[in-house]
Design a protein that fits this description.
Length: about 210
């Protein structure tokens, strides 16, 4: 993520209480006038701050749950991949590694679950280094040469990567739709929703291509 975006996020978080109070004062002044402002503001700001902090707490707890349950889903995927990994071509392995790397870049944040997933894939593929210079455009052009089984593993791995760090949306969803289209697989948002719910419930994640069966 660009440095100015990181700075803006930090400033907005620290300004949340001040900005909320400022906006509330303007609204109340227009609605009730100056005389009512002093008496009503303390009665409203308390519940408003409580609601805002509850929302922040929900986001934090959701992230903590992702961080706690994500490795379970990742280890489950790796356990199923260890056997078939021996039969995957070098092109398939590279596509999976670079695909996860591209997902990290699309998310614009090195989330702990993504880092762990990439490290486990590097390990199971016996990659020569722990460094990876992501070049997804080159890998995307090679997807047509993968076997059907290899494309299925790519789709399943990137589907899990997409939901490991939050509800599927934005750049992550757009990238996943690109991958599904390139692999000739129908994009099923409901199956991905089930995958996300299974992850957050600590259940064995179903395949994004199986419809949860």
């Amino acid at each position: 993520m660009k440095r100015w975006k990181l700075t803006a996020r930090a400033l907005l978080y620290r300004m949340k209480v001040g900005v909320t109070s400022f906006v509330l004062r303007i609204l109340m002044r227009r609605i009730f006038g100056r005389m009512a402002l002093r008496g009503l503001l303390p009665l409203i700001t308390g519940p408003l701050y409580a609601l805002w902090n509850a929302l922040i707490s929900y986001w934090i707890m959701r992230q903590a749950r992702e961080n706690a349950l994500g490795p379970f889903a990742i280890d489950n995927l790796i356990a199923r991949l260890e056997g078939p990994a021996k039969d995957l071509s070098d092109s398939a392995r590279e596509a999976m590694l670079h695909g996860v790397g591209e997902m990290i870049m699309r998310h614009q944040d090195a989330h702990a679950n993504h880092v762990y997933l990439l490290s486990r894939l590097l390990e199971v593929f016996d990659h020569e280094t722990q460094a990876l210079d992501v070049d997804w455009p080159r890998q995307a052009r090679a997807l047509a040469g993968l076997s059907e089984c290899e494309r299925c593993w790519l789709v399943e791995t990137l589907s899990l990567a997409a939901v490991l760090v939050g509800p599927l949306r934005g750049r992550r969803q757009a990238f996943l739709e690109e991958v599904f289209d390139a692999c000739g697989v129908a994009f099923d948002s409901r199956a991905l929703g089930r995958l996300r719910r299974a992850l957050m419930n600590g259940e064995t994640p179903p395949s994004a291509m199986s419809g949860g069966a």
